[in-house]
Amino acid sequence: MADQSILLTSLLRQRHWQTYAVFCREYDKAAKRVAPDLKNTRPSRAQLHRWLTGELKSLPYADHCRVLEAMFPGHTAEALFSPAPNGTAGHGHETPPLPAPRISEALPAVVPPIGLRPHLERAFEQDHVSIDFAGFSGETLQGVLQEPLDKIRYRQLSPKSLAIRLLLPDTTKPMTLPCKADDLTDDPDFRARATTITRRHATAILDSVNELATRGAIEKATTQIRVHQAAPLFKLYIINDHDAFFGFYPIQRYELQIGDETHGIYDLMGKDAAIFHHSADNDTGREYVKQSRLWFESMWNTVSREFKG
């Protein structure tokens, strides 16, 4: 099949839908017609490339096939991934496949912190929502959760269940990082401030989710928080076991005023950290999500303990 253009490639060229952006637009239109919960299931750029060059050894997932058949009425998924007859695209010769994506296009997308919000909001359109977070305080997570939680409260979103887990550092115990800038030792005053910040944001998530469950806005909702004594060098979000977002915390020195004293601190800068998006829509992303899940579960079940607030 890789030696000849497949029918799907030819039909896309015939309709001038061969660019990735246009394909996604038409795919979403068809997905909405098939079933509302399919509108965010479009393939990644690399995955589409494999489709169009005949590299698949079997048909795509069933939901993808359903949408493709809606995009091209009268054609089965089997036919769309079969060699195209000569002239299908309106030419007297075989239609060449789309060019391979550049290396940069095949890499995980870099998402600014604010870019996490639409991904998270789309996750809440599913019946069952799960969010696992590992990081410093949960401040960014609380910010991006606020709008979808409000939409559940006002019945604009209606998932059946919501499960959130936060894996955070224990700021009540001495830490190797953040630390004093002059001698790299633990700073109890800084930790006390960090504990207040963590308590504020983590418990705000807990309270918001519990309120939804109490009011009956969602059938089942849980929030769990555990803490550990490892240095929080990165942040990780795992959403619906389908998407993983990972970003390193840059370490910077700054002067922190606590009471009448100035503390030189090496701290973890989380708000401006770029995050990389990995999706289970492609083989590499699927493995990354899987390994992220294994790491999270190992930390959760071994060296962490319940957060006491």
Protein architecture, described:
Residues 87-106 have low confidence and may be disordered. 39% of the residues lie in helices and 21% in strands. It has 10 helices and 11 strands. α7 packs across α8 (139-153). It has helices at 7-14, 20-34, 45-52, 62-71, 77-80, 103-106, 116-123, 139-153, 188-215, 283-301; strands at 109-111, 128-134, 161-169, 179-180, 220-228, 234-239, 243-248, 251-258, 261-268, 275-279, 305-306. The N and C termini lie far apart (59 Å). The strands form 2 sheets. The chain has an 8-stranded mixed sheet with strand order 1-10-7-6-2-3-5-11, sandwiched between helices.
Please write the string of helix (H) and strand (E) elements: HHHHHHEHEHEEHEEEEEEHE
Strand order of the biggest β-sheet? 1-10-7-6-2-3-5-11
- Please count the helical segments: 10
Q: What's the assembly state of these chains?
A: single chain
Question: Alpha-carbon distance between the termini?
Answer: 59 Å
Average residue pLDDT: 83
Strand count, sense and closure of the main sheet?
8 strands, mixed
Helix content: 25-40%
Uncertain regions: pLDDT < 50 for 5+ in a row?
87-106
Strand fraction equals 15-25%
Radius of gyration: 24 Å
Name the structural class: alpha+beta
Which shape, going by the Cα principal axes?
elongated
Number of strands: 11
